[in-house]
Fold this sequence. Notes:
mainly alpha, 20 helices
Amino acid sequence: xxxxxxxxxxxxxxxxxxxxxxxxxxxxxxxxxxxxxxxxxxxxxxxxxxxxxxxxxxxxxxxxxxxxxxxxxxxxxxxxxxxxxxxxxxxxxxxxxxxxxxxxxxxxxxxxxxxxxxxxxxxxxxxxxxxxxxxxxxxxxxxxxxxxxxxxxxxxxxxxxxxxxxxxxxxxxxxxxxxxxxxxxxxxxxxxxxxxxxxxxxxxxxxxxxxxxxxxxxxxxxxxxxxxxxxxxxxxxxxxxxxxxxxxxxxxxxxxxxxxxxxxxxxxxxxxxxxxxxxxxxxxxxxxxxxxxxxxxxxxxxxxxxxxxxxxxxxxxxxxxxxxxxxxxxxxxxxxxxxxxxxxxxxxxxxxxxxxxxxxxxxxxxxxxxxxxxxxxxxxxxxxxxxxxxxxxxxxxxxxxxxxxxxxxxxxxxxxxxxxxxxxxxxxxxxxxxxxxxxxxxxxxxxxxxxxxxxxxxxxxxxxxxxxxxx
Length: 471
């Protein structure tokens, strides 16, 4: 171990070269950069190829796309990813050559410059998505760093509360006509169905009037009795004054056999909610079972009997309960509010979305919560730009990507134990395990416990290229 690592206090600078700290597998900077760059491009093709194929099939791309655009777009993304890794090492080598020192902040500065160079290669339509994803990873990393330093204390189920608040925001936009667009609108229509989607006010009112005219005389009398207090003068406040247990029970009984006049679904409210729950529960269970089978494919080939344990595993219930519960509760609350208030409103989506979001208790995930929250912030920011309420920052997506990636790369160098395991695995694959070959035993001198993840690794260095003495 380097002598500096024995110092009692963390230091900020090491008098070392880039070989003995960074590219320990090769003393040549040029060859080391090419190793990372070319190897990263090859691995990126392997990573991106199935993603682009699945995306193309899901979007039903034309024959022209597969013939003329698929390969160029795949290579462009692969070059971007490989360049990001290669440029990071290149900037580190250049900084070391210019200063002769290895500074604590090199990871941030080199990561920012390298990421800015790399993101300029990627297609513009992908930069925003990449920026949000990396900002998500950076936030997780910063939270882990703060927790490991005792600066914050993790709270149980905080990701569930965050998801519930975010779901309320998405649900409100979904109920507003034009609130969501693109993949998010398609996703919510698939999840919740077209019945709760936002419509122009005149179309919704005409549809509601048509529903009222189709009610039978028996249903009309039952509905009139159930909703009599809401038709009195002061309608908007009367429902609060008459919100009794007996009235709620009467309305719930009515919802078992019929729909409210303002509901646009075909069957009774009870059937509508149960169908939504069963549909998404089945899809969630099937998806989780399929993932379990794919991840255990080699073991299943060796022992076919494991297939049944993968298909009928109680862990498969988690995703099904999350998705089914989300849809069922959202539809129940929406219908319940229409029965109670005898009116429909986009604001109903806020409590419905919040209560439905609590189903993340069954499938907790910081990654999902943070990503959807950041995408909601991006969506609101873009709407603010369209309405002129917030300024448009030029190249904001590229800057956000560069800074976020720099934070994550800095953590990968200085404290990889605080990086999300899946991202560390991705970095290792991208660089063909070379990112793990950095001399982190020497970097321990910075006081970040850099070698905690790999305490036994010791690079084989050539002393003639080193400035420091290594054990």
